[in-house]
Amino acid sequence: MRVSGNNVNVKRYSSFEESNVNVNNVTRASKKDYDCADHLIRKFERIGCHDAPSCRGFFCKCSMRLTQDTIWSIFEKATRSPEVESPIKYFIGACRNQMK
């Protein structure tokens, strides 16, 4: 965390808060974001990715930054494409690329 005067630059993904320049500019995950993350966890667990619960924070961040259409099209590509060996790794990589 960098503090200079009244401005604070904080990135804390574990609590889903971000603030760039002003402390009053805080984005928090909504119930919709948590529901989307939980839905992704259930979907990944059904196809055998049992480490999905540990990715809940990342899934929530995806829901905050990406559209639902983007998230689910990446999920479909990750789970249906025969050349993808690890659907969850593909999903995380593709979402990171979209969030850049």
Question: Can you tell me about this structure?
Answer:
With 100 residues, the chain is an alpha+beta fold. The chain has one domain (29-99). It is 52% helix and 12% strand. The protein has 4 helices and 3 strands. It has helices at residues 31-46, 56-65, 68-80, 87-99; strands at 2-4, 7-12, 17-19. Strands 1-2-3 form a 3-stranded antiparallel β-sheet, with no helix packed on it. A hairpin with a 2-residue loop joins β1 and β2 (7-12). α2 packs parallel to α4 (87-99).
Topology, number of strands = 3
Total count of domains: 1
Which percent range describes the beta-strand content?
5-15%
| Distance linking N and C termini | 21 Å
Mean pLDDT: 81
Query: Biggest sheet: strands side by side, in what order?
Result: 1-2-3
Structural class: alpha+beta
Tally of separate helices:
4
Q: SSE string, helix = H, strand = E?
A: EEEHHHH
Helix content: 40-55%
Shape: globular
Low-confidence stretches: 10-25
Radius of gyration, taken over Cα atoms and rounded to an integer in Å: 15 Å
Can you tag this structure with a few keywords?
3-stranded antiparallel sheet, alpha+beta, 3 strands, 100 residues, 12% strand
